[in-house]
Design a protein that fits this description.
The chain is an alpha/beta fold. It is built from 18 helices and 16 strands. The radius of gyration is 30 Å and the shape is globular.
Length: 460
């Protein structure tokens, strides 16, 4: 184990104490020991202890008294009580007073290790939950959704109206605009904040598994179904399910999802029993669902079920007036993460950032700032510290210069299209905007030049 859990053993029998120390140290634990409850309380105040292993019968202060005092002094410490006088009443009393487990003497080495490992798992789980709660608190804070432009003010107004309701929300926007952040904020600011928030990335689950993933299955329902499994909708009961990248869901799965949204019930694979679920649905996509509906790639009836309360997150290039505010917020966040002071930006850096097109949106902005702040030790970030693409004459364009003599227009057009696709990370709609032409025109020219893309013909 990379982190050695710290154990304090309290045992007035010297021989038994030494045996316990030897067993636990051999198995990777960091162990301190003492002979009395009073000594133990002094140690608890002086050092961090994950697990307290105490005898019950001791002079001056017995194990139950130490248990109560230890819980007051160090509430996070798990306590295991040992005694040769094992009775149901003392076990119940110890557990009621806050002990996590009970060992009846004599016990063997394996029993000791199992009980201590169980206590360590409880400590680890509590710490992980506390860490996740802190991350959630930080990530869903209203301050993390930054913007003052009119488009973002409209977004804030819809979010405000969405928070107290159970209404289905559809969040649309390019990759990196913060769709997941908005979804989490709506859930964790509303009446379901203490209930489950289940995330499903529809694009990441194979078509053959998505039905089982969403709705669960019974034992023996198909090859490999060795046990019954709850689906994501059941896991989200009384809470929220966030269906990310909903535009990538295949037609068959769309039909099954529509049925759940209509009936409010799920049926596991291999079962004839329906289970009612109380789930709020928030969906998100970086694709244009209207166009997908027109092309027959997305069910119109499902689209209407999802599009009850739409939220459109504008790309960063359409709200560049928010750039100084975003930079200020992200610099503080990154500086805190890195443990460094917040640097200034030279005026020419902000100018270059305003000319840049930001195909990766706010996520790209955060990555650029973090990369620059890691590599730059100065108080002020200059243009020389920025990635190469910001040092071009005009970082918003392709950096075009007059081509070499003899290069024909056809070759030039192909080269510009390839550059735009590369900058847009393969997204045809983004590349079209970079080139100042329509989506269909770019599709035609891509086909004309035989340029390979990673995007299907219906994608945008």
């Amino acid at each position: 184990m990379s982190y050695k859990p710290k154990i304090l053993i309290v045992e007035d029998d010297t021989t038994q104490r030494e045996i316990l120390v030897d067993i636990l140290q051999t198995n990777g634990y960091e162990v301190t020991s003492c002979a009395s409850g009073k000594q133990a309380l002094v140690l608890l105040k002086e050092q961090h202890v994950d697990i307290l292993l105490t005898d019950l019968r001791m002079p001056e202060m017995d194990g139950l008294q130490l248990l109560l005092a230890a819980k007051r002094a160090s509430p996070e410490t798990e306590v295991i009580v040992m005694t040769a006088y094992a009775t149901v009443s003392t076990a119940v009393k110890a557990m009621k007073d806050g002990a996590c487990d009970y060992l009846a003497k004599p016990f063997d080495k394996d029993e000791l290790l199992v009980v201590v490992e169980r206590a360590w798992e409880a400590v680890s789980l509590r710490r992980e939950n506390a860490r996740l709660r802190q991350l959630v608190t930080e990530s869903v804070s209203p301050e993390n959704i930054v913007g003052s432009c009119p488009a973002m003010q409209r977004v804030f107004e819809v979010i405000r109206r969405a928070i107290p309701l159970k209404t289905t929300v559809l969040i649309q926007g390019e990759s990196g605009t913060g769709k997941d952040l908005v979804a989490r904020h709506i859930h964790f600011s509303g009446p379901r904040k203490d209930k489950p928030f289940i995330v499903v990335n529809c694009a990441a689950i194979p078509e053959s598994l998505i039905e089982s993933e969403l709705f669960g299955h019974e034992k023996g329902a198909f090859t490999g179904a060795d046990s019954a499994r709850m689906g994501k909708f059941e896991a989200a009961h009384t809470g929220t399910i966030f269906l990310d990248e909903i535009g990538d869901m295949r037609a068959e799965s769309q039909a099954k999802l529509l049925s759940v949204l209509q009936d409010g019930s799920v049926e596991r694979i291999g079962s004839t029993q329906s289970r009612t679920v109380d789930v709020r649905v928030i969906a998100a996509t970086n694709r244009d669902l209207n166009k997908l509906v027109e092309n027959g790639a997305f069910r119109q009836d499902l689209y209407y079920r999802l599009d009850v309360l739409p939220i459109f997150l504008p790309p960063l290039r359409e709200r560049l007036e928010d750039l100084p505010l975003l930079i200020f917020h992200l610099k503080k966040k990154i500086a805190q993460k890195l443990g460094r002071p917040v640097p200034d930006l030279a005026p020419e850096v902000l100018d270059a950032m305003k000319r840049y097109n930001w195909p990766g949106n706010v996520r790209e902005l955060e990555n650029v700032l973090e990369q620059t702040m890691i590599l730059c030790d100065k108080d002020t970030i200059t243009l020389a510290d920025m990635p190469d693409r910001f040092r071009q004459p005009n970082p918003q364009t392709s950096g075009f210069v007059l081509p070499p003599q003899g290069l024909v227009m056809e070759d030039l057009e192909r080269d510009l299209i390839q550059q735009a696709l590369e900058r847009a990370q393969g997204k045809i709609a983004v590349a079209a905007k970079l080139l100042g032409i329509s989506y269909k025109t770019l599709q035609y020219r891509i086909k004309k030049h035989g340029i390979p893309t990673h995007e299907g013909p219906e994608q945008v």
